[in-house]
Write a structure and sequence with these properties.
By secondary structure, the protein is of the alpha+beta class. The chain has helices at about 5-10, 60-70, 100, 150-160, 180-185, 195-220, 245-255, 275-285, 290-295, 335-340; strands at about 20-25, 30-35, 50-55, 80, 90-95, 115-120, 135-145, 165, 230-235, 240, 260-265, 300-305, 305-310, 310-320, 320-330, 345. Helix 5 (about 180-185) packs across helix 6, helix 5 (about 180-185) packs across helix 9 and helix 6 packs across helix 8 (about 275-285).
């Protein structure tokens, strides 16, 4: 495969110069907390049930399998919106057929790290990607390097004002970038199990996107529009083409109402034009295997915002640790916020 296999985690451009700050995250599950916010209320009636679940030390798919076993349904009958990390305490929503969910009221799953907080009737099965945002609380310990609190405050203020590059996090590429190895296997004509094939296609698209975003960070255009860009509305999948950047467009960018977007690659040419399209094509040419496998799979071009808005960012020093809290729209990775502040280990 073209490019460095360690690109997803190591070689992406930073929006700001490193502060020299180091620290550790996830020293225990409680140090990384996530609350999923749907953005809508359960219907209160219907043939399904929405379950608000708190999980500790287990990933989303494992919880889905556990709920399926406990309720006596197939795993495919369990719905959820977003994937959440294993090494964390997270609250997220699942759905089950109503007839199967009722017995869960009497079952204690705490030994498995699962606590059911609420069950509410709903008309539809929960689908992937329908939640609005995620709220984080992250404790960073064993801080070293930058001793000046003022420098840390200044960087966090800049992140709150400007956002961060909306990279896909390293977890998208699997342990040690293993999902990119699956891309090479697909490109070589190997048949993969359905799940591994999905991982490969997702990693291939994410790699091209990250490479394009890194190029735009280096060129200073990750948070401004280029002629031919597609602007995406904050918190939405709606977008529109921008052939010329005027004062109104610049004001909307400054207010985080819109963002420049980059390609989630598919067959054919991206929908961008002009300068933006030329840059996207140039970067994609560096990743021919990624482009080939998603094109062969018949995937259509989609878009993702290049900038990630960091909402409600607050921070405090507590007992030698730095505690951050913030909110990200769905699809945003907390680790890409942290990488603009410090070099961290998990």
């Amino acid at each position: 495969m073209s490019g460095d296999a360690d690109v997803p985690a190591r070689a992406l451009a930073h929006a700001w110069p490193p502060l020299g700050l180091c620290g550790r995250i996830r020293t225990r599950a409680e140090d990384f907390q996530v609350i999923e916010e749907l953005g809508f209320a359960p219907d209160g009636e219907g043939e399904h049930v929405l379950l608000r679940v708190r999980k500790t030390g287990c990933n989303t798919q494992w919880v889905a399998r556990s709920l399926a076993r406990a309720s006596g349904v197939a795993e495919r009958d369990v719905g959820y919106s977003g994937l959440k990390d294993r090494h964390a305490v997270t609250e997220q929503w699942f759905s089950l057929p109503r007839r199967a969910a009722e017995p869960l009221r009497a079952i204690d799953l705490s030994a498995s790290g699962i606590e059911i907080l609420d069950l509410t009737p709903h008309r539809r099965k929960l689908r992937r990607g329908v939640h609005r945002r995620n709220r984080f609380r992250i404790v960073i310990k064993e801080l070293s390097g930058a001793d000046e609190t003022a420098a840390i405050d200044q960087r966090l203020q800049a992140i709150a004002k400007q956002g961060v590059p909306n990279y896909f996090g390293a977890q998208r590429f699997g342990r040690d970038g293993g999902n990119l190895a699956l891309v090479s296997q697909l490109a070589a004509g190997q048949r993969l199990p359905r799940q591994q094939r999905g991982f490969a296609l997702s990693a291939g698209r994410s790699q091209v996107f990250n490479a394009l975003l890194s190029a735009r960070v280096e060129g200073g255009s990750w948070c401004r529009l280029l002629p031919g860009d597609l602007a995406v509305l904050q918190g939405s999948r709606s977008m529109f083409p921008v052939m010329a950047v005027d004062a109104v467009i610049e004001q909307r960018i400054e207010a985080h109402d819109i963002h420049p977007s980059g390609p989630l690659w598919g067959r054919g040419n991206p929908p961008s034009e002009g300068e933006a399209a030329r840059l996207e094509r140039s970067v994609a040419d560096d990743w021919p295997e990624c482009v080939a496998v998603v094109s062969a799979a018949g995937m259509e071009h989609e878009r993702r915002a290049l900038r990630l808005t960091v909402e409600d960012l607050q921070w405090a020093f507590e007992g030698g640790a730095l505690v951050l809290s913030f909110t990200l729209s769905r699809g945003g990775f907390a680790t890409v916020v942290l990488r603009e502040l410090l070099d961290f280990s998990e």
